[in-house]
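Dear Dr. H.,

I hope your travels went smoothly. While you were away I took the liberty of generating a structure for the chain from your last submission, since the lab meeting agenda had it listed for discussion. I wanted you to have the full record in hand beforehand rather than looking at slides cold. The sequence, exactly as received, is reproduced here:
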Amino acid sequence: MCAMCFMMFVFNQYLPFPLQYLSVIIFSAVGGLIPATVFAITLHYAPHPNAIAASVGLVLQISAFGQFILPPLSGMLVSYTHDWGNIVWITTLLSAIGIVAVWTLFKRHPLSNK
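The corresponding predicted structure, in token form, is as follows:
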């Protein structure tokens, strides 16, 4: 997603429109896989079988908070800088945070075949 974001916002003046459009499609397709993956692994990482519903609820709350707070913050950045290209920095920062969080989670708690 980060690479596609760079193609959309940073390199857009160097790419023909079909490649820009393809980068948007790939960005959205990969972005659509992330919630499904997170909800699927939440079932395996719940501390107890009785806590699955609470774990999924926590994931829903965090997801909803991100969907609520990030668009206005992104809009503020664009309004302040007058350049949509700066959205790539938010995406890059959030991608890096996500990669570190997933790496840390899997390092501490490897997924076992239960």
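Two observations you may find useful: DSSP finds four helices and no strands in the chain. The radius of gyration is 17 Å.

With kind regards,
E. W.
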